[in-house]
TrEMBL record:
Compartment(s): Cell membrane; Membrane
Record-given protein name: Olfactory receptor
Principal localisation: membrane
Membrane topology of this protein: Multi-pass membrane protein
InterPro entries in the cross-refs: GPCR_Rhodpsn, GPCR_Rhodpsn_7TM, Olfact_rcpt
């Protein structure tokens, strides 16, 4: 407990002063647009939370969806609710109060939980790719290789790795001295936004971000690509066109989510050399924290009759006949 309290205390710079809060400028500078921004993000938040919790409810109540793939999807829905909750409610609160200041400790806390949830998201997408690999390429041993115990272990390992990653970056950023500028041209706290404000060198922190990022993102991405390379090779050997279509349809939604997740993430963290944050960075931030979690329920239910049927039964209160 003492360690955490010490971690959240700002460090003094060379002149003896320390930044105790950061000023988040938000998304727009025009006061007249603030009510519109509030309404848009408020409804986006409600839609995202409602959509993901509906997917989770559908998975829990529909026996057809009690499979490993939907077990991981249910966990992903919980993470999406967490990711948007870490950033959007605090932004809405600042819009209502017209206060842009965020305490140093609150900023680091937001950074920690954001990296924790995104990290788990990253590993869960890998587990889902592995599940598709086993289901399509190793169907005879699928039930034993992807047992309930294996599913729980994969989720537990995902949380442990993501927690280690998030804590590493939070401890590393807490060693930096913030003694001068404290204005962040963004709507939430993250490493690319904090590095330019440091009075001390961030070279080691940036190297750490790239090194750990390679492990946290590069390794899962390589495993996903390898899994789907085997899946594609197996599916192409299926003689029936209908069989190939059915096999690929189970992977399409997941590949779409992976593409959006990694595409926006790479753009966000590969721009650390930029000294000035632009509107493009804010747009990528919106994509990471709002659009991705909002789109995932739509992507996974759009072409999935089982999920659509389960969602309809959740909405209408009807029970499944099976």
């Amino acid at each position: 407990m003492f360690f955490l309290q010490e971690l959240m205390q700002p460090k003094s710079g060379a002149n003896g002063t320390a930044v105790t809060e950061f000023i988040l400028l938000g998304l727009v500078d025009t006061p007249g647009l603030l009510p519109l921004v509030f309404v848009l993000f408020f409804f986006a938040y409600l839609l995202t939370v409602g959509g993901n919790l509906s997917i989770l409810a559908a998975i829990l109540v529909e026996p057809k969806l009690h499979t490993p793939m939907y077990f991981f999807l249910g966990n992903l829905s919980v993470l999406d609710v967490g990711c948007i909750t870490v950033t959007v409610p605090s932004m809405l609160g600042r819009l209502l109060s017209h206060k842009r200041a965020v305490p140093y400790g609150a900023c680091l806390t937001q950074l920690f939980f954001f990296h924790l949830l995104v990290g788990v998201d990253c590993f869960l997408l890998t587990a889902m790719a592995y599940d598709r690999f086993l289901a399509i390429c190793r169907p005879l041993t699928y039930s034993t290789r992807m047992s309930q115990m294996v599913q729980k272990i994969l989720v537990a390992v995902s949380w442990a790795c993501a927690f280690t990653n998030a804590l590493t970056h939070t401890v590393a950023i807490s060693t930096l001295h913030f003694c001068g500028p404290n204005v962040i041209n963004h709507f939430y706290c993250d490493l690319p936004q904090l590095f330019p404000l440091s009075c001390s060198s961030t070279q080691l922190n940036e190297l750490l971000l790239f090194a750990v990022g390679f492990i946290m993102a590069g390794t899962p991405m390589a495993l996903i690509v390898t899994s789907y390379a085997h899946v594609a090779a197996t599916v192409l050997r299926i003689r029936s066109a209908e069989g190939r279509k059915k096999a690929f349809s189970t992977c399409g939604s997941h590949l779409t989510v992976v593409g959006i997740f990694y595409g926006s993430g790479v753009f966000n963290y590969m721009r650390l050399g930029s000294t000035k944050l632009s509107d493009k960075d804010k747009a990528v931030g919106i994509f990471n924290t709002v659009i991705n979690p909002m789109l995932n329920p739509v992507i996974y239910s759009l072409r999935n009759p089982d999920v659509q049927g389960a969602l309809w039964r959740v909405i209408t209160g009807k029970r499944s006949l099976t």
